[in-house]
Amino acid sequence: MADALRELLALLQQFTVETDRYVDTISVRDALHRTDLNALGIMMGAARTGVTVTPGMLRQALNLSSPATTALIDRLDEAGQVRRSRSSVDRRQVHLEMTEKAFETGSRLFIPLAREVEQALSGFTPEELELFGSMMRKVTDATVHARQQAVEDPPE
């Protein structure tokens, strides 16, 4: 069991490295900042779940300063990727909406990766995919927890 666990951890690490390399390649190829791609990814995830994205949400999710968040949103706005609007409930609150161009950009960038991963998983049974899904949720939750611990308990 210990050998299988070590191998799985090594594979997860390699998956993370390869995912980062993919995003780096795409960001260079399409002249987009890596942070911009990460922001679009966060916004696409929020759109799937019906969550309204705010500058504060992006700042926290990307671990950016307020000035860096403003610069990010300005870049995305100038590139036609996002639209700013005021909340109808609280006019002080800014909402960020992805434009059609952002959805097209996201699709162009991430559909090839999704297609490759889908093909790689196509031979597995529904039960195996359910097990993989459960594992990935737990691994993702563990990663979030480790990040939170790192923030709360920085090295001395």
Poorly predicted sequence stretches spanning 5 or more consecutive residues: none
CATH homologous superfamily annotation of the largest domain: Winged helix-like DNA-binding domain superfamily/Winged helix DNA-binding domain
Biggest sheet overview: 2 strands, antiparallel
What is the CATH topology descriptor of the largest domain?
Answer: Arc Repressor Mutant, subunit A
Number of helices in the DSSP assignment: 6
| Oligomeric composition of the shown chains | single chain
Proportion in helices: over 70%
CATH architecture of the largest domain: Orthogonal Bundle
Broad CATH class of the largest domain: Mainly Alpha
Number of domains: 2
> Structural class of the secondary elements?
mainly alpha
Radius of gyration: 18 Å
Q: How would you state the average pLDDT, rounded?
A: 89
The string of secondary-structure elements, in order, is HHHHEEHH
What percentage of the residues does DSSP assign to strands (E)?
5-15%
Distance between the termini: 35 Å
Order of strands, main sheet, comes to: 1-2
Shape: globular
Number of strands: 2
Would you kindly provide a written description of the structure presented here, covering whatever features stand out?
This protein has 156 residues and is mainly alpha-helical. It has 2 domains: 14-122, Winged helix-like DNA-binding domain superfamily/Winged helix DNA-binding domain (Arc Repressor Mutant, subunit A, Orthogonal Bundle); 124-156. It has helices spanning 2-29, 34-49, 55-62, 66-78, 100-121, 126-152; strands at 82-86, 94-98. It has a two-stranded antiparallel ribbon. A hairpin with a 7-residue loop joins strand 1 and strand 2.
